[in-house]
Amino acid sequence: MTTLSDHKDDVFSTLTNLATLVSALHDSTDVLSTLNHNLAAVTALLSDSPDEVGQAMADLSALAVDVKSFVADNRDAVGTTSDTAASISTALAQSLDDIKQSLHIFPTTLANFGNIYEPASGSLTGALAVNNFSDPISFICGAVEAASRLGAEQSAKLCVQYLAPIVKNRQFNFPPFGENAFVGAQARPNEVTYSQDWLRPDYIPPAGSAVSVPEPAALPAEAAPPDRSTDPGAGLPGLMVPTGAGS
């Protein structure tokens, strides 16, 4: 009794916990029933195919041995590959903005490529756009500064000082001339659309009824003038050509 009296708190706590456990089990009847069904299904599956489970375990054991031997034989290669993959991942992470920009301009670039590609000749065509003429001082003096080893800044200043009065009024966006040295086929014959069928080179006009042209009417033969004999008694006129048409 003394022992029970000394541990009465523990006894009551144990009873309280047991009551809580019994209540939880009572409230979880459906869950326990589902668990029992699942365990029964797993047990039935294992009992129906014991050889398959054993074979799977044997295969897993053999695979573990193969993996262990592979890692042991290729330790340096695996380490190098891991380091390379880490460096590639780091480079991709550092170039994330460039990748986004590339993906942003790729559709426009692809469309421009489609515009300059000529399928008829299998070549690329384009227009020369030299936009450095819009600011020739910066272009020329920048090149001078880049090519100078010593005193680059002073060289650039002298370049600007001497060239500015000459080219400051000769700035334009593009050169004022055009060039198209090579002109090739722009479309295949089967890609040309004619507005009228009779414009096609292979056009054959439809066969129609021939128009009969009337023959000219025969002119009536001119009547011969009547024969006239000369009359010497009439003098000189009687001896001349008889009078008639055209006289």
Tell me briefly what this model is.
With 247 residues, the protein is mainly alpha-helical. It has a domain at 130-176.
Could you list some keywords that capture this structure?
single chain, mainly alpha, two-stranded antiparallel ribbon, MlaD_Phospholipid_Transporter, MCE-family protein MCE3d
Describe the protein in words:
With 247 residues, the chain is an all-alpha fold. The protein has a domain at 130-176. The protein has 9 helices and 2 strands, in the order ααααααββααα. The chain has helices spanning 2-6, 8-27, 29-48, 50-73, 75-94, 96-116, 136-147, 152-167, 236-239; strands spanning 117-118, 123-124. It has a two-stranded antiparallel ribbon with strand order 1-2. β1 and β2 form a beta hairpin. α7 packs antiparallel against α8 (152-167). The longest helix is centred in the first third of the chain and has 24 residues, at 50-73. It is elongated and about 205 Å long. The model has no long low-confidence stretch (mean pLDDT 77).
Question: What is the average per-residue confidence, as pLDDT, rounded to a whole number?
Answer: 77
Rg, Cα atoms, Å = 56 Å
> How are helices and strands ordered from N to C?
HHHHHHEEHHH
Strand order of the largest sheet: 1-2
Q: Using the alpha-carbon principal axes, give the shape.
A: elongated
Terminal Cα span? 185 Å
Share of β-strand residues: under 5%
Structural class by sheet pairing and helices: mainly alpha
**Largest sheet data:** 2 strands, antiparallel
Contiguous runs where pLDDT drops below 50 for at least 5 residues: none
